[in-house]
Design brief:
The structure holds two protein chains of two kinds. Chain A is an alpha/beta fold. Chain A has two domains: 185 residues, P-loop containing nucleotide triphosphate hydrolases (Rossmann fold, 3-Layer(aba) Sandwich), CATH 3.40.50.300; 35 residues, no CATH class. In chain A, 26% of the residues lie in helices and 30% in strands. In chain A, strands 1, 2, 3, 4, 5, 6, 7 and 12 form an eight-stranded mixed β-sheet that branches. In chain A, strands 8-11-10-9 form a four-stranded antiparallel β-sheet, with no helix packed on it. Chain B is α+β, with helices and mostly antiparallel strands. In chain B, 43% of the residues lie in helices and 21% in strands. Chain B contains four helices and six strands, in the order E-H-E-E-H-E-E-E-H-H. The chains are: A alpha/beta, B alpha+beta. Chains A and B meet through strand 1, strand 2, strand 4, strand 5 and helix 2 of A and strand 1, helix 1, helix 2 and helix 4 of B.
Chain lengths: 225, 162
């Protein structure tokens, strides 16, 4: 639920990083916190357990620049990765404007990724939000690990696409971040599908972190336009 | 606009009316500061003494606090808790729901009492509820109202991320 504050000339938007435990959601925020100019970000708030697992959420506000005289303020949140904390996961999704799904690329985490994705769809549905109709991107994290699953497998498992029935939207739309790939295209069976944008990342080194943030922020602002 | 991204806007006139109502409340109750926070954690307005803490972080935690307590209420068979009170040795805070979308947070110290704050807050919450109902009833861009602030700003958005 973005809020345009004409009094303070700010546009406020909420972005949530979602995904299974130990996938790198908090790391994404820590990298953003460490690399942006201190005057463009607020405090990084972490509600974590003693073992540094996110208990409720992490939060970081960042300013991404000015459009039409309005400061664009993005509030970045992570959710707890463990299903045990689903009640607090759900609370964080309230009023969300854009979602980043952080997937752990390791083959053995595939099932956990899929469970988290299903859980995201379920939690969104409970609020009446439709993930296929709002800004949503995936980040395939830990691409540097030797046991990382091939991208095609990640896409097939987590981003197979949703069907487009509206003929007006059935037009091939290239993926702006991956040459030769499409976000909207017909399948050999004739049905049209749309996939979410995806980014490859190694969050601990910062690779792909800002590309992901830029990608989702742009989608959120364009949804307001 | 996509489902789940229902936007709302807040004009300078709204800000004027809210400030007036909250200033009166602060004067009558002896509280130090009042903050309005929307349920998704965004700070809407601050009136009275400027807080020394980070108001953005404060707003986020307030919304989380309220949401968590809503769920606790449901677990014990209540639909919600429409107000919360946190008592400290010197500083205390009182939180109240406004129109189911906004939270009014009042900070006060030993110079006043919980009873007075509560009494005066009731009327202010009613006033603010009325005001915010009007704000939320205003048609947004998505509902076929005036074009959004960012309508036609695609190029500017692209430039922001170059």
């Amino acid at each position: 639920m973005s809020m345009i504050n004409y009094a303070s000339r700010e546009i406020n938007c909420k972005i949530v990083y979602y995904g299974s435990g130990l996938g790198g959601k908090t790391t994404n925020l820590e990298i953003v916190y460490g690399k942006v100019q201190p005057d463009t970000r607020g405090k990084l708030i972490s509600l974590a357990t003693e073992t540094e697992r996110t208990l409720f959420f992490d939060f970081l506000p960042v300013d991404l620049g000015t459009i039409r005289g309005f400061k664009t303020r993005f509030h970045l949140y992570t959710v707890p990765g463990q299903v045990y904390y689903n009640a607090s996961r759900k609370l964080i999704l309230k009023g969300v404007d854009g979602i980043v799904f952080v997937a752990d690329s390791q083959v053995e985490r595939m099932e956990a990724n899929q469970e988290a994705m299903q859980n995201l769809y379920d939690n969104m549905a409970e609020y009446g939000y439709d993930l296929t109709k709002m800004p949503f991107v995936l980040q395939y994290n830990k691409r540097d690990l030797p046991n990382a699953a091939p991208l095609a497998d990640m896409q097939a498992a987590l981003n197979p696409g949703w069907e487009i029935t509206d003929p007006a939207k059935q037009r091939v739309s290239p993926d702006p971040t991956h040459a030769g790939e499409n976000l909207i295209e017909p399948l050999p069976t004739g049905e049209w599908i749309e996939r979410a944008q995806y980014y490859e990342a190694v969050a601990v080194t910062g690779d792909g972190v800002f590309e992901t943030l830029r990608g989702i922020s742009k989608l959120v602002l364009k949804a307001l336009a | 606009m996509p489902v789940g991204a229902a936007s709302w806007s807040f004009t300078e006139d709204d800000f004027g009316a809210i400030t007036q109502s909250l200033n009166r409340f602060l004067y009558e109750s002896g509280a130090r500061c009042a903050l309005l926070v929307d349920r998704s954690g965004q700070l809407v307005a601050t009136v009275g003494e400027q807080p020394k803490f980070d108001p953005t972080a404060f707003a986020t935690l307030t919304a989380a606090d309220f949401s968590a307590n809503d769920q606790l209420a449901k677990l014990i068979g209540e639909s919600d808790f429409n107000s919360l009170f946190h008592q400290g040795e010197r500083e205390s805070m009182y939180l109240a729901d406004v129109a189911r979308r906004v939270i009014l947070v009042v900070l006060f110290d030993n110079r006043t009492t919980l009873g007075l704050v509560r009494l005066k807050m009731k009327l202010t919450v009613e006033e603010l509820t009325h005001l915010f109902q009007q704000v939320f009833a205003r048609p947004t861009h998505a509902q076929g109202g005036a074009p959004g602030l960012l309508a036609g700003a695609d190029d500017e958005i692209d430039k922001l991320f170059q």
